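Pipeline run #58 for the internal structure catalog. This entry was flagged by the ingest filter as a single-chain record with no existing model, so it goes straight to prediction. Upstream metadata was stripped on purpose; only the residue string is passed forward. Reviewer on rotation: M.T. Logging verbosity set to normal.
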Amino acid sequence: MSELNNIALKIIGNGKGILAADESTGTMTKRLEGVHVKSSPENRLLFRETLFTSERMNDCIGGVILYDETIKQSSKSGKKIPELISNLTSVPGIKVDTGAKTLANSKEEKITEGLDGLRERLNEYYKLGARFTKWRAVYIISDKYPSKLAIQTNAQALARYSALVQECGMVPIVEPEVLMDGNHTAYDCYKKTTEVIKKCFDELELHKIDLKGVILKPNMILPGSSSGKKITNEEIAKLTIKCLKESVPSEVPGVAFLSGGQTEIEATENLNQINIHNNTNFIMTYSYGRALQQSALKFWSKDIKNIKGTQELFNHRANMCSLAAQGKWSKELENK
């Protein structure tokens, strides 16, 4: 096995998943102000460090995606944040794109930027302790979107990013997110997501990426959030697995789903169903932000000094997600 494959399996193997704690300062400010907590560097670090030092980090969280601010901060104990995470047997990672901007000649759509100066930034992050990275591309669904232009240009950017990341000895997370927004059917989502992921892997192969050292972070196959259409968890699972079987090369070690606007319970239940029906060789796990943090954040906001109570909520959520990554979750365990 290659070293990159070893890192990938350490992050997503053995029922572990990824804590996405890579919200930009702007996004984190909205989250904190939404629960009436001042968004200062100290408070942002306090909440994140509360999660990072929780008991279930050891057996449920294989990797933590950090933001540029956090990877350079130190914990209360004086340890650098990447060292703190590594000591908990988790792998530190870093978001390296600089955000989605309007795509020229297709103003409804987005292209993710951040390739300029990326090689130098990656070398810096490696020295700081990062061993994997994340780059997110976003796509909308409608009658005419995502366009061929958006699919092609974002796939090329993801491939160029991945090549630079592997050159630096890190594992790239490839995140092509087809957004839930819209009134499309689950079948529309399945068709468009399959097309998007296929094109990403076409470009990754063209750029000679070691696919055994890549983690895919896709959306699940869901109907549009404003469609009013509902399908069962089992239908979501089967469509999602069908999409991945048709679009992901067998060398890829695993898939870490984004929660993409689902509630904590929806994201857990759907992941559990995917693993119950998983007839592939792919590890199917989680890379959740809000779906791991939301309950803990709401509780913490009432008393930011109540570290123990906040950690109890996070421990429960992380445990439920880990069970779902093994197809062992149930409503009874959820409500214990």
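catalog note: The chain has one domain: 3-334.
catalog note: The domain at 3-334 is CATH 3.20.20.70 (TIM Barrel).
status: ready for reviewer M.T.
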